[in-house]
Amino acid sequence: MQEARRQLDALFVIHASISTIIGFACMLVPHSLAMSALQTPLYGHLVHEMVRLYGALTLAQGWLVWKTRLVGDALIRKTFCQAYCLCFSLQSLSMLRAQLSSPESHSVLNWINVLVLAG
Length: 119
Fold this sequence. Notes:
It contains five helices and no strands. It has helices at residues 2-28, 30-38, 45-68, 74-101, 108-118.
């Protein structure tokens, strides 16, 4: 049981670290990230703000996962894992639908995101 907790804590640390880095990047340099992801000169203020909002949510979830490592209640930890599984599955399905419905407006990066989120 302790080994499973240590493994989950390690996963939480990795997830929190990646979420924090991505969240800060989206908050601080939304233009650079959006331009490299979109690969188009068509870029508006709305895209800029959406990237920042996504960054705020991602940064907050990184902090939440970091703090959850300190919680001893197995049900809460299990619920976090289930919520992330659901969240990443739904994101993967949404991105897959976008890719299939409009493949010309998506890059290889979208396929990578679909696979990472589904995995």
